[in-house]
Protein 1
Amino acid sequence: MARQKQYIEAEVIEKAMGLFWRNGYENTSMQMLEKEMGINKFSIYASFGSKHGVFLESLKSYKKKISSIFEKLQNSTKGAEAIKEFFYDSVDVCHKPGNHSGCLLTNTYNEFIESNDQVIKEQMTTFMADLKTIFIEKLSGNTNKDKQTIQKQANFLLLAKHGLAAASRVNNPKEIEDYIEMTFQVI
Amino acid sequence: MARQKQYIEAEVIEKAMGLFWRNGYENTSMQMLEKEMGINKFSIYASFGSKHGVFLESLKSYKKKISSIFEKLQNSTKGAEAIKEFFYDSVDVCHKPGNHSGCLLTNTYNEFIESNDQVIKEQMTTFMADLKTIFIEKLSGNTNKDKQTIQKQANFLLLAKHGLAAASRVNNPKEIEDYIEMTFQVI
DNA sequence: ACTATAACTAACCGATCGTTTAGTTAATTT
DNA sequence: AAATTAACTAAACGATCGGTTAGTTATAGT
């Protein structure tokens, strides 16, 4: 063939992800992406097709980044306690002081909830629905709660994720811990 | 003098507020504002100076809109129960199905948290700080909780506002009620 | 009725948005 | 070493961004 790529796609996507994570989709420009990813516009379009394509790959990369804590949650036999551990694990991954940005998926969910971008909207809806399913499964695990209570608690924890995202964005570790502990007093 | 204004500033700001509420600041363009406010760019700039100015006035209008439920909270003697009522009142104001947009201030807080716009950032920080102060006051009101517990609970409720905003944006009234009730089980 | 003045319309400003493309550089293959 | 081909640089694309301004219209005071 000919000249080889001077960059690794997975690496530059990692950097793009950080930018989207901090600023959101709309507030991230191609100019910023060029600078952060360290490659030219041409290369970005050659590899990912569009800004939208870069974002989709960034979301994929983020999901991969957090896949281990999802698997841990899914494989756990600790019931509701597993969800609490999942909350703590989420903070470990998302709470990067100086880079504090909450959860990329929660941020994206909020940014696109009123948008016309059906592709991303559907991804976010699916993500939330999947998470709720896992919550329900774990909440049903080691107790004999009635179905209605489980539904309520799953909804509550799903919404609590927004509080957690806000907490991990601005608060100190102690306050985050307090928030998680108080949230799970209800369960 | 001369020709009189063909619009009422308070009225067009009300419409601008709705637009910002639905779409956020960055995703609202001057073109959209012209259409929604029903007046020309010239008039917008004559009355409010800039897009930023329109947004600041919209925030002012929103605060005015919710001032009554704040005053009710502040004047209540019901302690923690007053905060719960405030949550319900917030939903009454913010949960407009078909126009569902959560809380403008919480939305704005989230949109500007990583921004360089110090003016709006400070307004949001001040709003959150003021709300926390009121929460602390109410939580201290009719009990003899220790100060540490009060601090924790105030932080918890402040973060729960993000969950509530998310709930009032997408969920049905029953789910919103469940979320509030479960939140206040902790208090 | 005339004049002054403010509110209006509409065209236009430079800057930046995401995207494309012409032209150059470097590595692979023959 | 020459030819090929893909990765690069950099300039430019049309569209839209927030914002401005020349020119027109309508109303108030004299």
Protein 2
Amino acid sequence: MCAGVPDSELMVLERAVTDLHIDPRGTIVDEGEPAQHMFNVTAGTVKVYKLLPDGRRQIIGFLMAGDFIGLAVRQSYAYSAEAVTPVRLCRFPRKKLEELFERYPSMEKRLLGLAANELAVAQDLMLLLGRKTAKERLATFLIMLSDRARRLGMPSNPVSLPMSRTDIADYLGLTTETVSRAFTQLKNLKLIRLDTTSQAQILDVEALRDLTEGGS
Amino acid sequence: MCAGVPDSELMVLERAVTDLHIDPRGTIVDEGEPAQHMFNVTAGTVKVYKLLPDGRRQIIGFLMAGDFIGLAVRQSYAYSAEAVTPVRLCRFPRKKLEELFERYPSMEKRLLGLAANELAVAQDLMLLLGRKTAKERLATFLIMLSDRARRLGMPSNPVSLPMSRTDIADYLGLTTETVSRAFTQLKNLKLIRLDTTSQAQILDVEALRDLTEGGS
DNA sequence: CGTAAGATTGAGTCCCTTCAAAGCAAGTGG
DNA sequence: CCACTTGCTTTGAAGGGACTCAATCTTACG
């Protein structure tokens, strides 16, 4: 039910856990608000982002089944989160969660592992944002989604792109126009084919993966 | 001695801990190598970075006293680390550390907190790399160093810049030339003054902090 | 279908990069 | 003690990749 939390331990939480359904564009958390809950995505796609006062936006990550929102949380949320598709969530009150930690210290070890993963992903994204070209960024993004789908036991090849071009742009540090042009470039190179706007067929995984690291 | 680890717990490790001194440009860990150790910086500045095959580099962070290298580690290091200044380190074998976790589960909570911090810093850097201008990036960098110095109980105003312009560029996702020009811009705006290449006086903290978020 | 929102394409501009040269600071040897 | 060297920083000029602005096209949905 709530991925990553064994049933036996979940029992303790059962009364405190809420099962939420959020529609696309629905807000899950707002940057700056007191962080009272932690969420676990059980279905759908969530975007997590930060804003500058003038509206510039950087999407920090797209979360899918099994991912946590509010893992790295302190007093208040450091980012906002919004549903991209219809989303199902488990919501835990943080206080209850801390009680749970007292009783099952092994949970902290698991959370530490998750945090380590997130950190590694974040560092890869920094390399992308700081040093990759638009084409390389999009190639990396597609490979990333493909790999993640496989890890979740879903088909890895027609890559599903539930988010808009604007969202992709805000994740890759580009504009929608540049993202669109990069799609066209990859199409012209015969590396991908767009079945629909939101579904990309990878035609040459190897070449695409090379592009990811600059293999011209 | 080893910041962040209480003496009582440290006793258990004492035979396994090594006190290291590394000269500037000395390598601490190499990306891809098996992650056998975890390090705690006790003095000096360390840069942590990732490379692309063609040599493009992104510095993930500058670590100072109290910071950990290898916190987010899995099988092998996901990045390289190198001394910027003369550095003092505590080195823990990871195996011993895990034994310690068995005995003192509270240590995991502390590490989780540290990881949460790192994650928040990483997310701020993503916003910087994806969405800020060169001037804003440098302003953010200076404020960041100033705030960190204060947290470490050191003077926060003449900001110490032990790293080269190239290192700053590779951290901010820019070139050395652009970093240099951004310094000149901030000087012309009377927001900072460069006492020496490696020491910047902040003349107007408020204005600099505004620039950080686009308050042109 | 008809409409609106999103995606793509085009043209021109700008900020950062690239390439190149000059300036500066620190260390060495005469 | 100072010319000389060497490496880093700063400045300059030209170029390019991504951005901006704008129009067209496509898709989704009532």
